[in-house]
Amino acid sequence: MKKIITLVLITCLILSFSACSKDTEPAESQDSSSAADNSQDEKETESAGNETLLIAAAASLKNCFEDDLIPIFEEKHQSITVDATYDSSGKLQAQIEEGADVDVFMSAAMKQMNALDEKELMVKESIVKLLENKIVLIVPKDSDKGITAFEEILKADTVAVGDPESVPAGQYAKEAFENLGLWDEVLAKSSLGTNVTEVLNWISEGSADAGVVYSTDAASNENVIVAAEAPEGIVSKVIYPVGVVKASTKQDTAKLFVEFLKSDEALSVFEKYGFTSLK
After folding, report:
1. Which of 109, 153, 237, 253 is the most exposed place for a label (fewest CB within 10 A)?
2. Where are the domains of the chain?
3. How many CA atoms lie within 13 A of 46 on its CB side?
4. Distance CA 207, CA 201 (A)
5. What's the DSSP call for residue 68?
């Protein structure tokens, strides 16, 4: 009888120990799962604190934005990342009109900004005329054409200008040569670039004998020479406006970036690249 009782007690103890072990294991597993969930929540919260601002800017702004201005802004505001796309102002205008995800627009002429503003696609009070540039006639550094003035453009066998339909630099070029009574002859010799950077590259490579770009572009390329600056009176002032796109879902951050571009620090960077501040 004692043996039977002893066996029963031993069996109960084994069953009790096994039950306790099973109860403990889920608790440990639950703690581990909870810790993983908390870690994931922390990562999501950290990610949610970061914001990406999307900028559409004229091609002639790429160097100063990428090399200086964007890094300075991101250093000041480390929870904000700035992504920028660069092209002719006309193309960027069209993309914004078609609903492209853009927060801030900076063009190389008032025409494109005004068009968007008239369609109520910009935050009107955010638009500011920020910079001025100059239109120049350039030639390859080894040119032997003897071109020293806009009036001498026809000495070139091939000419490069931006497409006047969408490229502000091309619109300015057309205006200048129309005022000189030369546009039709220039156009007959011209290759039309999709943006001012393409025009600069053609002349730098020697694919064209002469062309029209901004002075800031010419200063950035050692393979071209400025033959002449557009004489006063033959071309409109080259104004660069900037503003917040109305469809932006990051209005406060977009306005913060525009305010940064208006700061003395940012304007000194623009001036380093050859722009003139209008502030």
Report:
1. 237
2. 50-132+239-277, 135-229
3. 6
4. 8
5. I
| The residue to which tokens 């390329």 are assigned | 221
pLDDT at 49: 60
Lookup result for tokens 């010799």 = 189
Q: Residue 246 forms beta bridges with which residues?
A: none
CA distances from 248 to 44, 69, 87, 94, 105 (A): 23, 21, 20, 16, 11
Q: How far apart are CA 77 and CA 96, in angstroms?
A: 26
| Residue 126's pLDDT band (cuts 50, 70, 90) | very high
CATH fold for domain 135-229? D-Maltodextrin-Binding Protein; domain 2 (3.40.190)
Q: Is the pLDDT of residue 197 over 70?
A: yes
Adjacency order of strands within the sheet including 224-229: 190-193, 159-162, 210-214, 135-140, 224-229
Same CATH topology for 50-132+239-277 and 135-229: the answer is yes
Secondary structure class of 135 (helix, strand, coil): strand
